[in-house]
Specification:
This protein has 426 residues and is α/β, with parallel strands linked by helices. Helix content is 41%, strand content 16%. The strands form 4 sheets. A 5-stranded antiparallel β-sheet has the order 1-6-2-3-4, with helices on one face. Strands 11-10-12-13-14 form a 5-stranded parallel β-sheet, sandwiched between helices. β3 and β4 form a beta hairpin.
Length: 426
């Protein structure tokens, strides 16, 4: 939750409520909080609309935090990944005693520790607010004012808020959010939320209607698990041009835009920029999990979003997770940690999965270590080439729990004699 606990722990009385019928009136009400130097919580909700509740927190008219809407954790992860790429991210289970760092106070702690700058924290708060303001405006416009936004003002005592909180001026953000919405609308995207995830609907037709390079880029990029906003951060661009580039394929029915679930809770742990471990809590380990708590599984992929998906799956299964995002540093880290199985993404900068797999097989310590190549290009040529460089198996993206766990059961069985099985697709 991106707001100070000193604020969120208070449950102030509702001062007044009203219904805003237009987007302009809504923006005016938000700006009025700034002009009136409001200190408190402004709750916004749309009647009969799932996941359409937001809260903006003010301190003397400036924004100090925000919560709510769809994908609050995914939104947080995007901003953290974009503004603080130096921080490896790991998932904390509910039983874990590690501090949860996807909230305001944990981020402030990292600022005090020197892991995050105050400017980075302000950028994260601003990014969250901008996405929320855009979503509020879009949702209100989509409803065509059939169901207005209900506002609840909850004043909070000034002395209950720490004086050193990050504060953001709301007026410029409102103007920027309105401009972003107008540009999104003028591009013909009004009915599409940037929280939707593109997914290939007809791969064969897409291959036929595009060049090999375009098809390869699309199948590598789009896996149905990443939203337009997620992909924009990954590609270091604005969601608008990305959405515009995909619309011709969406209109032809080759690519669909679907709703996806939010991420589980995250934590941030200061460590090296290339590795992070996902250690399960020993208190809640089931018999199945206890068999694998000493087993390390590596995942080599430059994508932080794919890494978080894999980490969640392995964490829940009780494996220790080694994430390597820089393929150049893969071999030294593999030699240091000696994983029992290696998942390897095929498409990466500088060195691809084939090259890394061949390098791994030249090291005697990994002669019998299962190496599973992951890719969106699930073709016979890729499979043959992967087998030539010594891959043990082939896993098609998108990553999901069922496929990953089936692979682990096949290549990391309890009986060592079964480890001789090779080249069988899970």
């Amino acid at each position: 939750m991106l707001t100070p606990s000193s604020v969120s722990s208070i449950n102030p009385p509702v001062k007044r409520q009203e219904v805003v019928l237009t987007t302009n009136e809504l923006v005016e009400k938000i700006q009025a909080c700034s002009q009136d130097q409001f200190t408190g919580q402004l709750d916004l909700s749309i009647e009969y609309s799932r996941d359409q509740k937001w809260s903006l927190y003010f301190y003397l008219g400036d924004l100090i935090g925000c919560t709510g809407g769809v994908h609050p954790i995914r939104r947080w992860f995007r901003q953290l990944s974009h503004h603080c790429p130096q921080l490896p991210v790991y998932i904390a289970t509910p039983e874990s005693k590690q501090p949860r760092c996807w909230d305001y106070d944990s981020l402030a702690t990292l600022v005090r520790q020197g892991e995050v700058t105050l400017r980075q924290m302000a950028e994260i708060v601003t990014g969250n607010v901008m996405e929320i303001l855009f979503d509020i405006i879009q949702r209100e416009e989509q409803l065509h004012h059939r169901s207005g936004v209900q506002l609840s003002y909850r004043p909070i005592p000034i002395n209950s808020i720490e004086a050193n909180v990050v504060s953001i001026r709301v007026y410029p953000l409102c103007l920027e959010a309105m401009q972003d919405w107008e540009a999104w609308q003028q591009a013909g995207l009004a009915k599409y939320s940037p929280n939707l995830a593109p997914k290939i609907s007809n791969a064969e037709e897409l291959r036929w209607q595009t060049s090999p390079a375009v098809y390869r880029n699309l199948t590598t990029l789009i896996d149905g698990n990443q939203t337009l906003r997620d992909l924009a951060v990954k590609l270091k661009q604005n969601p608008l041009p990305l959405a515009q580039s995909l619309m011709p394929y969406v209109q032809k029915g080759l690519i669909g835009l679907e709703e996806v679930k939010d991420f589980p809770s995250y934590s941030v742990k200061p460590a090296t920029a290339t590795t992070s471990f996902f250690a399960p809590s020993g208190n809640s380990a089931s018999p199945e999990r206890s068999q694998s708590t000493e087993v390390t599984v590596a995942y080599i992929d430059d994508s932080r979003l794919d890494s978080q998906t894999m980490s969640h799956i392995l964490n829940q299964a009780g494996y220790q997770f080694l994430n390597i995002q820089d393929p150049v540093k893969a071999l030294p880290l593999l030699l240091e940690h000696k994983p029992s199985l290696i998942f390897l993404d095929l498409v990466m900068p500088i060195a691809n999965g084939y090259e890394i797999c061949a390098q791994i097989r030249r090291i005697s310590a990994f002669k019998d270590t299962p190496v599973i190549i992951l890719t969106s290009n699930d073709g016979i040529v890729d499979r043959v080439r992967a087998k030539i460089v010594g891959s043990s198996g082939f896993l098609a993206k998108p990553i999901n729990s069922e496929k990953v766990l089936a692979t682990l059961q096949r290549y990391l069985p309890t009986s060592t004699t079964a480890q001789s099985q090779r080249w069988n697709t899970p």
